[in-house]
Specification:
By secondary structure, this protein is α+β, with helices and mostly antiparallel strands. It contains 9 helices and 15 strands.
């Protein structure tokens, strides 16, 4: 049975968390939870792809160009003529995007993250603010964020470390983008990087299950954080304003 890691790794490769159906299927069809992912967490967008990564082994690696002659006659053509034309179905070229709001709600539910008082999650750059986690054992609050992009993980960590005096949690699909400097920054802040591929399993009903207890996934630090103020749910851009206005 293929691990859920195949999904989290692929998600990191999608800058906008969207791709043509043929790409989702090619990369994830062998995963035993692909149908669950599609049912609960993907939505079809109102546009079609014009090209996609070539599935044929080739030194040049040029993307295939989509040629639509009619809804029943769609082809993927190699621009260099080095590979045979691929016949496509109409669904293959439809863009499917991750339903981020639904995924975020599921993640908040399984990790007992208190959602903001408003209904939308705020996105700033490549980082999402999800809510707050309260650790009853240590009586500490953690502000919880999520980033999908391994390439910008060091930048996200650096930004959050400068914006927060208290520890925080940053969720990420994998630890692939973690560098020693960013790891040390997290240690200095006593903050937590939570790799979803190592901690979460997708269930048949679309929910997630933690591989360890929530307390182990979000291990508390050894010092007391400030208790939350009435405006503890400020999004990242407000924290930036507060920090830089003091410079």
């Amino acid at each position: 049975m293929m691990s859920d890691s195949i999904f989290w790794n692929y998600l990191e490769e999608l800058p906008e968390q969207e791709a043509a159906w043929i790409e989702w299927e090619r990369r994830l069809a062998s995963w035993h939870r692909f149908n669950t992912l599609y049912t609960h967490y993907l939505r079809v967008e109102g546009h079609r792809v014009k090209q996609f990564n070539c599935p044929s082994p080739c030194e040049q690696g040029y993307p295939r160009r989509v040629v639509e002659n009619s809804p029943s006659d769609i082809k993927a053509v190699c621009p260099e003529g080095n590979a045979e034309t691929i016949q496509l179905k109409f669904r293959d070229i439809l863009i499917y995007a991750l339903r981020q709001d639904v995924l975020h709600m599921a993640l908040c539910g399984v990790l007992q993250i208190e959602r903001p008082s408003y209904n939308k999650w705020a996105e700033f750059g490549s980082t999402w603010y999800l809510g707050d986690y309260y650790d009853a054992a240590s009586k500490l609050y953690y502000t919880v964020y999520l980033t999908y992009r391994a390439a910008t993980l060091p930048e996200a960590i650096n930004s959050l470390c400068h914006l927060h005096h208290e520890p925080f949690v940053l969720m990420t699909p994998t630890l692939r983008g973690l560098v020693p400097e960013a790891k040390q920054q997290l240690a200095d802040k006593k903050s937590i990087l939570l790799p979803m591929d190592a901690e979460l399993n997708l269930q048949p009903d679309g929910s997630f299950k933690t591989r360890r207890s929530i307390a182990e996934c979000i291990a508390p630090c050894n010092h007391r954080c400030q208790q939350p103020r009435n405006n503890k749910n400020l999004p990242i851009d407000v924290y930036k304003y507060l920090v830089y206005s003091d410079l």
